[in-house]
Amino acid sequence: MKRMKKSIVKLEQVTKIYEGKVMHRALNRLDFEADQGEFIAIMGPSGSGKTTLLNIISTIDMPTYGRVIIDGIEPEALNSNELALFRRHNFGFVFQDINLLSSLTLEENIVLPLTLDGLPIAEMKKRVEQLAKQLSLKDILNRRPDELSGGQAQRTAVGRALIHKPKLILADEPTGNLDSNSAKEVLELLSVVNQTERTTIIMVTHDPIAASYCDRVLFIKDGEFFNEIYKDERRQTFFQRILNVLSLLGGNVHDLRML
Ligand SMILES: Nc1ncnc2c1ncn2[C@@H]1O[C@H](COP(=O)(O)OP(=O)(O)O)[C@@H](O)[C@H]1O
Ligand SMILES: [Mg+2]
Question: Which CATH class is domain 2-256?
Fold first, then answer.
């Protein structure tokens, strides 16, 4: 069956220039499109503009030139209140630094974004229970962050990013601080969410293994499009193709963490 494609992110000729003592062009005339349900990795050497790209997609930053359309909306046309609400309703964020609130339990951390929306307690409970099952955190919801493994903590952060059912998950090096087993847990979780909920995921990563979980990898270099590859059947061959492009890309390939 042919699936209808729906564009959820569209960047047209996006340029980002940071003004400062030295002007820096972090992105240069970049085109990028993500369809609903895609799981995309963004790779490139340090300083190539990956975080800048993610910040522009997430509307945290605006481009200097070019156009951004998220789910049919141009964020630039929204005022700051509208933008904050738009962000809160549409996006879930996962970062390298996990940033759970240490005085709250896992359950309280996960539910935090919903309390902002004033949802009924019963509805919140229901959603946490569903998610906790999916995240394999059911039995430890009353623990606090300092009683968790790295993988459990990051899975909790993924839970917090998912609790309000966002259309788009934006992740910046979500496995960057995790050991290989914990990284695998988080990546498998993201894959399941992507497949079952059709949540679009855009993930910046240095790690070719992490990228091999995605459907597509976009490589950027010096703020420009470098290459793009799609997954075929097997993750192992995709992984090999990712390594091939990374070796063409040069830069910091030597400091890749080989998991
Ligand atoms: N706020 C800023 N002001 C000035 N320069 C910046 C700022 N943020 C990033 N840069 C520069 O823009 C380039 C791209 O940065 P970034 O998007 O963080 O790259 P990456 O995430 O790929 O490492 C780098 O050269 C960085 O030094
Ligand atoms: Mg970065």
Answer: alpha beta
Q: Tell me the per-residue pLDDT of 203-226, one tens digit each, with 9 for 90 and over.
A: 999 999 999 999 999 999 999 999
- Spatial CB neighbours of 3, under 8 Å, sequence gap ≥ 6: 37
Give the β-pairing of 7-18 and 24-35: antiparallel
Cα–Cα distance between 67 and 194 in angstroms, integer?
26
| pLDDT tens figures, 153-210 | 999 999 999 999 999 999 999 999 999 998 998 999 999 999 999 999 999 999 999 9
pTM more than 0.85: yes
Which of 24, 53, 60, 172 to probe ligand 1 with, by most ligand atoms within 8 A of CB?
24
Q: What residues are in contact with ligand 1 under a 6 Å CB criterion?
A: 18, 20, 24, 26, 44, 46-52
Side chain identity, residue 173: E
Q: CB 9: neighbour CB atoms within 10 A?
A: 23
List the domain boundaries for the chain. Answer: 2-256
